[in-house]
Amino acid sequence: MHAPNLIPALLYVLIASLPSSALRAQAGALDVTFDGDGKLIQDFMSSINVATDVALQADGKIVTVGDVSPNGGSADFAVMRHFPDGSLDPSFDGDGQLATDILGGDFATSVAIQSDGRIVVAGYAYRLDGNMSSLVVRYLSDGTLDSTFNAVGWVAIDYAGGIYYESAANAVAIQPDGKIVVAGGATGDFALARLNTDGSLDNSFSIDGKVTMDLSPPNGACMEIALQPDGRIVVAGFAYDGTADDVVVARFNTDGTLDTGFDVDGKVITNLGTYGYMSNAMALQPDGKIVVAGSANYMNFVLVRYNTDGTLDTGFDGDGVVFTAVSLLGAYARSMALQPDGRIVAIGFAQNGLDYDFAVVRYNTNGSLDTGFDVDGKVLMDMTVHDEGHAVVIQPDGKILVAGQSYNGTTQDFTWVRYLSGLNVGLIDLSHHDRSVLVYPNPMEDEAVLEYSLSKEETITVRLLDLEGRALHTYIENQVQRAGAHQQRIALPQGLASGAYMLVVSSLTGQVSIRIVR
Question: What's the domain count of the chain?
């Protein structure tokens, strides 16, 4: 296919052929363009502050959620928005920070950004009647509650009636059609719900919009959710088997039924022996494999990788399981993300002998530690008396942003740290005329053409990602290509929502991210 004569908004970028040593030289170092030194600690309302999740808007602004307890009272949903340099965005509720009191003790756990810029936050609330409900709140881009969402801007979800019930939403995801899926726990079971765009429960999802999965034995919860390109829903969490916590991964069809093509009954429970395993995070690789991160006995970071059928992936450290002693005194993994090159970033906190530090660990695709990331694959950051990393996101420019909390002995505050990844991600410079990569047309509808030139033979991968770094589709996977000019047709996945995405062209020597708009 040849380029048409009239090409709207061409995008071109040069793939730099840098040696791997140059690419990795800064990996793990603090990004000093973020608040001057790579670190930001911020008090919110002179309160107890906990940041639980972070997401990126299409314009690069950073949205962080958690909870605040003003004047020692009950907790409120907390939402903050920063510019990419770490400064607060005053266009968000006037000063960049917002507290929302809904049902009493309200705790935000997860955030997702809609393609139209609205902000969806999930969590839970302790009600005045003693029960606990899952909560979903939607804000307009300026921080006001969205009155088109259940009329009041929020929805409480309960999975069981009676005198006492409890449920909590721990994760949220937005489907390409705009429907909202939340996952968490309900009186010891996995619990999922799907909402229509107006906040009503979607009755095409298990009749009433809600699904619970009995763990047998009980006392478990879902902690993370991911959507496959085909619409199926993957969740991960834990279950107590009477001796220790086990890893639980389940896959649901789009109608809410368990997918029997996943380990026969739709769920996999993995016992890691005598270790008490808490699985807190999950990510889907472009090839469909599932990576789960957590901790064993509060001592080690643990990663588990499954094949698409639910079996353990023996290509991942030989048995599908990796244990990492981040600190000899103990460590706890809270979140994880996949880089565009497939490497795995797990974050949390580690004991240093006196207090707790932010902990970031990077793994190669085979599960081995990436020694190009601060020499040994691990970075600890001591800022105050007690520092915890709770959430991580890979920016389109490859930088690693971690959000969490810090306690200085007096106050507990929101905290962010941004690290350089060493990835050679070049965002498009439209003023540059010596260009060797282009995508047209852009904005695009259903398909476009990618053209690029290689100065030498390279092993190429081309993937489509959302702005939070989640892989949506792989067009080329580790394909050896000759030097010279190449063309590739780029067809967008069916049902992909309007918005901004990243087309990532990578090789063993570098990569470039091309922002496209649908």
Answer: 2
